[in-house]
Specification:
mainly alpha; 18 helices
Amino acid sequence: MTTIDQSAIFAGRPARVVVRPAEGRIAGFDGVRAIAVLMVFISHKTTLPHHDSYGSVGVWVFLVLSGMLISSILSEMRGKVEAGTQSSWRSMGDFYVRRSLRIFPLYYACLGVFTLGSLFTSFVGFSRMEATIYALYGTNIYIEMTPTGDHGHFGHLWSLSAEEQFYLLLAPILLFTPRKYLVRICIGFMLAGAATLAWLVSVKAHPNAIHVDPLIAFGMFGVGGFVASLKNVKPPAWLVSAQAQAAAGLTLIAIPLVFGYFRDSWNVWGPLTCTFAGLFLFQIARNQRTPVVAFLSLWPLRSLGRVSYAFYILHQFVHFYEVQAVFHKLHINIDGPPIVQLALELFITVALATLSWHFFERPLLRLGARLTAREGAEASSATDALSSGRQAATR
């Protein structure tokens, strides 16, 4: 669930709608994050038909977006290495410092709260062994080994584990490999992911094991990296038009609704939805001046997208029955229909995530930028890698 500030974008085509991204972030990307995390929220909080497929698509969108941005950052850093302005080792150190300050504090703070709580009570899926696995970012491997186990409210941490594993693997590969090999490396990850998916399906692996497999996730990161490598490719106007953007975005939402019902085929073909995610993100980055981007940049979506990392971590730990228990201790009984309960859980999660962003996460992001200022902020690296040219009109 990566969130990275940006100050420019792929060169876009002129159009009537002009979007001004806040704080230099790519316009529309926060909106995509918001929709993706809401899909995950719905999958975990409702019992709608094949609701879990919505959560899967939401996570896949996050994986592709993370792969796109992280590959861009590392590719730009490698460009500076090849230019002789910084070393590979120093670049890797800067990268890990910023990523650590972005991801670790909130993650380990949550685990710390449950560790303290476990001294007084027990939590399903949080034994001493499981807590250690979560702390070591091995959740996805653990779930793949125990696909039918009860992992309590901690199963969603698998995607964060896959992301950390990918960072550990990709950073040295891209920083110590000539920049021209980025496309081949990303295609290699994509092929490895596709081959792993085919093999797991052929041996009739459990759907949960397929869902969390690290190599399949790496393939989705690879899709994002491949999209990032297309910065010098000039797409036809129709491919990045508002109509094409809308078609791709609606397809991402419709796919789980239409095909999620067919469980057997969904396990085989569902992960390929990541290609539509890659296309949609490419379209947004290459044409920022459309009604679609304007919609994704609306304040509610933009604000939720900005706090999506904390929202994702916290949403599984916020439940209406816990609120009921608190009020019961105050001798107040509350109840409501499912839609009201869902709305309250959403409100509390957004509130907690917003507080986390303003008073915890953003200060640490600024600290990371200061600690690595000698090489420039992370935003600049990603910006240069994603941009084929500056475009002042989008600022």
